[in-house]
Write a structure and sequence with these properties.
The protein has 52 residues and is mainly α. The protein is built from 4 helices and no strands. Helices cover 75% and strands 0% of the residues. The protein starts with a helix and ends with a helix.
Length: 52
């Protein structure tokens, strides 16, 4: 995970997980709309997952 991805996930979380698939983007976007912190946490968890 690069530093630019971390910065992007803090600023706009759905854009940071764009290459991880439609489901990840949708989940992150919904959480980001509900609140900024849940969206950032979801993006960082998705980016840190080595399986995807």
């Amino acid at each position: 995970m690069s530093i630019w991805r971390v910065i992007l996930s803090i600023v706009f979380p759905p854009l940071a997980v764009l290459d991880k698939g439609c489901g990840s983007v949708l989940i992150t976007f919904i959480l980001w709309i509900c609140g900024w912190v849940p969206g950032v946490i979801a993006a960082l968890v998705i980016l840190n997952n080595p399986e995807r």
